[in-house]
Amino acid sequence: MKRYSRITGTGSFLPPRRVTNAEMAADLVARGHETSDQWIVERTGIRARHFADVGVNASDLAERAARQAMEAAGAKPQDIDLIIVATSTPDMVFPSTACILQNKLGIAGCPAFDVQAVCSGFVYALTVADSLIKTGTASKALVIGSEIFSRILDFNDRTTSVLFGDGAGAVVLEASDTPGILATDLHADGKHVGILCVPGSVSGGKVLGEPLLRMDGQAVFKLAIGVLEDAARATLAKAEKTEADIDWLIPHQANIRIMQGTAKKLKLSMDKLIVTVDQHGNTSAASIPLALDTAVRSGKIKKGDTLMLEGVGGGFTWGAVLLDF
Ligand code: UT7
After folding, report:
1. Cα angle for residues 280, 188, 190 (degrees, 5° grid)
2. Residue nearest to atom 23 of ligand 1 (CA)
3. pLDDT tens-digit profile of 260-303?
């Protein structure tokens, strides 16, 4: 019998501190930079984001999301035989956030590692977990996106500080004799490293370079629109499906204009688009599983629906996963 993988539970967690555009604008203005709620909403669709308190790490958010996903799947920590955390804001340089999370969940022995593909991290992690399940290496995986981007924001840069937030989303992905994940498509092009990066490193006990997020927003915007359409079409072709088969489009939640542009290119009506960017901001690798869990818990997404998940971000990386939920 052919072996597939299927999502059996979703979960998410947002740190309690909700920061509105008005608060962000007041802080920027106090620092001498002009901005407004109106500019942020019109250009991005973002109205609020959540920021984690000092001392809270990506593994803490991941633990809350993972426990919720396991509860939804009826899985116990001891049932999990693979943990993949997608993050660009790990607790430490090493060990991986996945290993730290594994210990917090009270599990030992199963493989645990991080995936670093910035905002495409979750679709990368889901694709790797799907492959490891299909080859029989794992049967019940935790796949998580968890980020604390507030730690790497430059609060004197109005072009980036208003865009990002913190949070985590998780799924349990299980072996199944029916799909599940129908097709995946991953890409990267390292010549675009400079348009979205945190150009700092640790050396000799000191930070070298600038450990804060830098982005050429317009360059990222243009690339994102093109590759998201390509990845969606390639994934549909691999699964021998068409746009008409998509019940819900869950793109990376970075900018409502990019998301609407992608839906339009795929000729999908806007009510098939899952939108959480207004309340979460851009939570990088966490944005897709956070949006997925929010839509599942609100009753929008139902068992059997066909979902197109799409990520795009620093690297430059991009990819898509088509699945029956
Ligand atoms: O997560 C990975 C994926 N990331 C993304 O997908 C982000 C992609 N990029 C974007 O979402 C958009 O490019 C931004 C939201 C970052 C910027 O929107 P834009 O419509 O491309 O604006 P812009 O960069 O063309 O800037 C327009 C103007 C500029 O002023 P001038 O040069 O026209 O005087 C900016 O300096 O808006 C100015 N501006 C702001 N004004 C008020 C930039 N940020 C702000 C701000 N408040 N926060």
Report:
1. 105
2. 218
3. 999 999 999 999 999 999 999 999 999 999 999 999 999 999 99
Domains with residue ranges and CATH for the chain: 4-176 (3.40.47.10), 181-324 (3.40.47.10)
Q: Respond yes or no: is residue 110 known to be catalytic.
A: no
Does 21 participate in catalysis according to the annotation?
Answer: no
CA 287 to chain centre: 4
50 lines ligand 1 (CB under 6 A): no
| pLDDT at res. 189 | 98
**Is the CB–ligand 1 distance for residue 100 below 6 Å?**
no
What pTM, to 2 d.p., does this model score?
A: 0.98
Q: Are 315 and 192 in contact (CB under 8 A)?
A: yes
Amino acid at 151: R
pLDDT at 34: 97
Distance (Å, whole) CA 111 – CA 83:
6
Q: Reply yes or no on whether 282 is catalytic.
A: yes
Percent of the chain with pLDDT over 70: 100
Tell which atom from ligand 1 comes closest to the C-alpha of 158. 48
CA-wise closest residue to 165 among 21, 320, 314, 298: 21
Q: Which of 99, 119, 197, 280 is catalytic?
A: 119
257 exposure class (CB count in 10 Å sphere: 0-12, 13-18, 19+): middle
